[in-house]
C-alpha cells in the first residue's frame, strides 16, 4: 500500500479562502480535495481549486535560478543568489544615495503571504525610508477600504460567512459571485433553496450567472450605482423604514445622508439608472422587510473613478436599517485575492501602516518606527499603483521591485506600463513563472517559491487567518519570498532582519498588533496548526476569535459611532462617450481563469470553458455594426486597440460591452489584451482605477 501524507492548506486563488486537503503519495504525486472540516467551504471546491495540484506539479514554466543582465542590450544570464542579491543591494543603494529613498519602490501582490507582505512593508517604510510600496490590491479593494474607514473607522469587515445562513435579504452589487466567488455563491444558493422566501437583489449592467438567483435584477446603466443606492435610501427614509434607535444612539451625520438621498426623486433616479422606478421601490421594500440584510460587492463598485462614493452610499443603507453588528446582517466587501486583507493588515499599501495604524498620525508613525528600530517613518503617502508607473515613465522613480504580480497585463492602459518599465533604470521581478509578461522587463529575475512550497498565513474575506504549510520543495533554486526579502535587507546592512523562519516574522507582527483593534497577539503558528483558523481579533491565548465585529454597536471611529457619509459625486466622472467612442466598456473575470492566467492558463481543462478572449455585446449594437456571433471585432479606445471574437446576446445592456481581463498577448499578438484600451483614471481618494468604464468604438474586422 502506498503511504500518503496529508496536509490541510488554503486555496491560492480568490478571497473566499477555501480549505484544501493535499494528499501526497509515496511517489510525491499530489492530489487535492476540499477540506470537509474547514468552516468556509465544508468540502466544496470550485473548478480552479480542484485543479491546483496540476498547477503545483507542472514546473515547466518555472523560473529556476536567479537571472541578471548588466545592461538592457544584454540577455539575462544565470547567476547565483549571492551575486543576484548583492547586485540588487548595490543598485538600490546607489540610486538611493544619488536620488533619495523616494526614487525606489516596491509593487507587491494580494497573493503574497502575510509574512512576505509584512517584511516588504518593514523594509520599505522602516528602513529604506520611503512609503513607495503599493500592491495590486489597489486595483481591487482600495475603494472598499476607504468606504469602511469613513463609515466604521477602520478597514474592518464586520461580518462572517456564517451570517449568510442567517440573513433573509441580499443585495449583490457590481459582483458576479457565481463565477468569481463560486463557493460563497454556492452557500447562498443552498440557503435560498432551503428558504425560498430569502430575497436576492442583483445590481449589474449585465445579466450574469448570479442573476439566476435574483428575485430582482436591477440592470442599471454603468456608473449610476450611487444614484440607485441614494434612491433606495430615500425610499427607506420617506417610508420611515429606518432603525431610528440605532441611528440616534450609534450614528452621526444622518442629515448629510438624507440631503444627498433627496437630491433626486425616485423617478428621476430611475431615469438616470435606466430602470423602472417600481424596481427601485421593490428592492427597497425587500431591504425594509428584512430581518437580516447583507450587501455584497466587489469590483463593479470599487473599480471606479467614484468608487469611494459608491461604497459609502451602499454602506449608508446598512446604517439606515441598523443592519450591522447583528446576526445575518452587515456590509460585506468580497475580497478578490486570497490575501488582500492580510496585506492590508500589515500595512502593505502606500498610505497604510502595519496593524491598522494610521500613516497620518505622528504617534502611530513613531510607535511603528520604534518597534522596528529603523528610520523615522515618513508622513507623506507613497506612490500608489498607477502613480508608481507614471513616476517610472517620467523618471522620478528609478527602480522598482515587482513581487508576484504581472502589471504588464493587469494594469490599466497597458502600453503605458510597458513604456514605464522600459524607461526604468532598474527592474527586479520576483515571481514563480516565466509566463508573467512582466518578467521580460527584468534586469534581475528572482525565482520565488510557489503555493505548497513555503509556509505562512493568509486572511480571507471574513477576517479568517489560516496557516499554509510547506508540502513540497521548490524546483531549482527558488526561495520563499520572505527569505529573499530578509536576505536583501541583510545585504543592505539593515538590522532587525535576522529571521530564521516565517514563524519569527509572524510572531513579530502579532506582537505589534497588541492593544489594537486587530489584535492577534493570542494567535501563534502553534494554535493555527492545532486548532485551525481564527477570525481576528484574537487578543489572548484562550480567545476563540471574533466572527462578528461591532456587536456592542461601538465602532472604531474616534467617537465610537458609525458615520453616515454623503457621496461627493452622485454622478459618474468617467471619461465620456461621444460619436467616435459611443460604447461603454466594462471588464471583468470569467469562471475558470484567474488574474493573468499564469497559473490557470497551465491547466488545459480550465481552458475548455472559455478558451479565448471575447467581446460580449448586445444584439442591437452588433446588428448596427454588421457583426454576427463569432465575427472578429475591432475594439478601440483613446488608448489602444483589441481584436477578439464577438459573443452576442441580450444579456448585456445596449451601448455596453464586456471584455474579460485575463488575457495578455497571445503568441506575441498584442490585440488580445483587454488593458490595451482601459483607462488609468483613478478615484481621487482611493486611487483605484476606473476599469469598469471607458469609452470605446467597435467595428467589424
Ligand atoms: Fe479557491 Fe475561490 Fe474556488 Fe474557493 S471559491 S476553491 S478559494 S477559487
From TrEMBL:
| Cofactor(s) this protein requires | Mo-bis(molybdopterin guanine dinucleotide); FAD; [4Fe-4S] cluster
Keywords of this protein's UniProt record, alphabetized? 4Fe-4S, FAD, Flavoprotein, Iron, Iron-sulfur, Metal-binding, Molybdenum, Nitrate assimilation, Oxidoreductase
Q: Which GO terms describe its molecular function?
A: 4 iron, 4 sulfur cluster binding; metal ion binding; molybdopterin cofactor binding; oxidoreductase activity
Asked if the keyword Secreted belongs to this entry, the reply reads: no
GO CC annotation terms, alphabetical: membrane
The 4Fe-4S Mo/W bis-MGD-type domain covers 4-60
For the biological process aspect of GO, one term held by this record is:
cellular respiration
| UniProt signal peptide | none
The family note in this entry says:
Belongs to the prokaryotic molybdopterin-containing oxidoreductase family. NasA/NapA/NarB subfamily.
Q: Supply the name of the protein.
A: NAD(P)H-nitrite reductase
**What species is given as this protein's source?**
Flagellimonas eckloniae
Lineage at the top is:
Bacteria, Pseudomonadati, Bacteroidota, Flavobacteriia, Flavobacteriales
Amino acid at each position: 500500500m502506498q503511504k500518503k501524507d496529508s496536509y490541510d492548506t488554503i486555496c491560492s486563488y480568490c478571497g473566499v479562502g477555501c480549505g484544501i486537503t493535499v494528499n501526497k503519495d509515496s511517489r510525491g504525486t499530489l492530489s487535492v480535495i476540499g477540506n470537509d472540516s474547514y468552516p468556509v467551504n465544508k468540502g466544496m471546491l470550485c473548478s480552479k481549486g480542484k485543479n491546483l495540484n496540476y498547477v503545483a506539479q507542472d514546473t515547466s514554466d518555472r523560473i529556476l535560478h536567479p537571472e541578471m543582465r548588466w545592461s538592457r542590450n544584454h540577455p539575462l544570464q544565470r547567476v547565483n543568489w549571492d551575486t543576484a542579491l548583492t547586485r540588487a543591494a548595490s543598485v538600490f543603494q546607489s540610486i538611493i544615495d544619488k536620488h533619495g529613498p523616494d526614487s525606489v519602490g516596491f509593487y507587491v501582490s494580494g497573493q503574497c503571504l502575510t509574512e512576505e507582505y509584512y517584511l516588504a512593508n518593514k523594509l520599505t517604510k522602516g528602513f529604506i525610508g520611503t512609503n513607495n510600496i503599493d500592491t495590486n490590491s489597489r486595483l481591487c479593494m482600495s475603494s472598499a477600504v476607504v468606504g469602511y474607514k469613513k463609515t466604521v473607522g477602520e478597514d474592518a469587515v464586520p461580518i462572517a460567512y456564517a451570517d449568510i445562513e442567517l440573513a433573509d435579504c441580499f443585495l449583490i452589487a457590481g459582483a458576479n459571485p457565481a463565477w468569481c466567488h463560486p463557493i460563497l455563491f454556492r452557500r447562498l444558493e443552498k440557503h435560498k433553496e432551503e428558504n425560498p422566501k430569502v430575497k436576492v437583489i442583483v445590481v449589474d449592467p449585465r445579466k450574469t450567472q448570479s442573476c439566476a438567483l435574483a428575485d430582482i435584477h436591477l440592470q442599471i446603466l454603468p456608473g449610476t450605482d450611487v444614484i440607485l443606492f441614494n434612491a433606495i435610501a430615500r425610499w427607506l427614509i420617506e417610508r420611515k423604514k429606518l432603525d431610528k434607535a440605532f441611528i440616534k444612539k450609534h450614528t452621526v451625520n444622518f442629515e448629510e445622508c438624507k440631503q444627498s438621498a433627496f437630491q433626486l426623486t425616485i423617478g428621476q433616479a430611475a431615469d438616470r439608472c435606466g430602470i423602472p422606478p417600481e424596481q427601485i421601490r421593490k428592492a427597497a421594500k425587500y431591504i425594509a422587510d428584512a430581518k437580516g440584510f447583507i450587501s455584497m460587492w466587489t469590483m463593479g463598485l470599487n473599480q471606479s473613478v467614484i468608487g469611494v462614493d459608491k461604497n459609502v452610499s451602499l454602506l449608508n443603507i446598512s446604517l439606515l436599517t441598523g443592519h450591522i453588528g447583528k446576526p445575518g446582517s452587515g456590509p460585506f466587501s468580497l475580497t478578490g485575492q486570497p490575501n488582500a486583507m492580510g496585506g492590508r493588515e500589515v500595512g502593505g499599501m502606500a498610505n497604510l501602516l502595519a496593524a491598522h495604524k494610521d500613516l497620518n498620525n505622528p504617534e502611530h508613525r513613531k510607535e511603528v518606527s520604534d518597534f522596528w528600530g529603523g528610520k523615522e517613518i515618513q508622513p507623506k503617502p507613497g506612490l500608489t499603483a498607477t502613480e508608481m508607473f507614471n513616476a517610472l515613465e517620467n523618471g522620478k522613480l528609478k527602480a522598482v521591485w515587482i513581487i508576484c504580480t504581472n502589471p504588464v497585463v493587469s494594469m490599466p492602459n497597458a502600453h503605458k506600463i510597458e513604456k514605464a518599465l522600459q524607461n526604468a533604470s532598474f527592474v527586479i521581478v520576483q515571481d514563480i513563472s516565466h509566463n508573467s509578461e512582466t518578467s521580460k522587463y527584468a534586469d534581475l529575475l528572482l525565482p520565488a517559491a510557489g503555493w505548497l512550497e513555503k509556509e505562512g498565513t493568509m486572511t480571507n474575506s471574513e477576517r479568517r487567518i489560516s496557516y499554509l504549510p510547506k508540502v513540497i520543495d521548490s524546483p531549482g533554486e527558488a526561495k520563499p519570498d520572505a527569505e529573499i526579502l530578509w536576505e536583501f535587507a541583510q545585504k543592505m546592512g539593515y538590522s532587525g532582519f535576522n529571521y530564521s523562519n516565517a514563524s519569527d516574522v509572524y510572531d513579530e507582527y502579532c506582537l505589534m498588533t497588541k492593544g489594537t483593534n486587530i489584535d492577534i497577539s493570542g494567535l501563534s503558528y502553534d494554535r493555527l496548526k492545532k486548532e485551525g483558523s481564527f477570525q481576528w481579533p484574537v487578543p489572548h491565548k484562550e480567545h476563540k476569535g471574533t466572527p462578528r465585529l461591532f456587536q456592542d454597536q461601538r465602532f472604531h471611529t474616534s467617537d465610537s459611532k458609525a458615520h453616515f457619509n454623503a457621496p461627493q459625486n452622485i454622478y459618474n466622472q468617467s471619461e465620456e462617450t461621444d460619436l467616435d467612442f459611443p460604447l461603454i466598456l466594462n471588464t471583468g473575470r470569467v469562471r475558470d481563469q484567474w488574474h493573468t492566467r499564469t497559473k490557470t492558463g497551465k491547466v488545459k481543462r480550465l481552458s475548455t470553458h472559455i478558451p479565448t478572449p471575447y467581446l460580449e455585446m448586445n444584439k442591437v449594437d452588433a446588428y448596427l455594426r454588421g457583426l454576427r456571433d463569432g465575427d472578429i471585432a475591432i475594439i478601440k479606445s483613446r488608448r489602444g486597440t483589441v481584436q477578439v471574437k464577438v459573443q452576442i446576446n441580450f444579456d448585456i445592456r445596449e451601448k455596453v460591452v464586456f471584455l474579460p481581463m485575463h488575457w495578455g498577448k497571445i503568441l506575441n499578438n498584442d490585440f488580445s489584451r483587454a488593458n490595451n484600451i482601459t483607462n488609468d483614471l483613478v478615484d481621487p481618494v482611493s486611487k483605484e482605477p476606473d476599469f469598469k468604464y471607458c469609452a470605446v468604438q467597435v467595428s467589424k474586422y
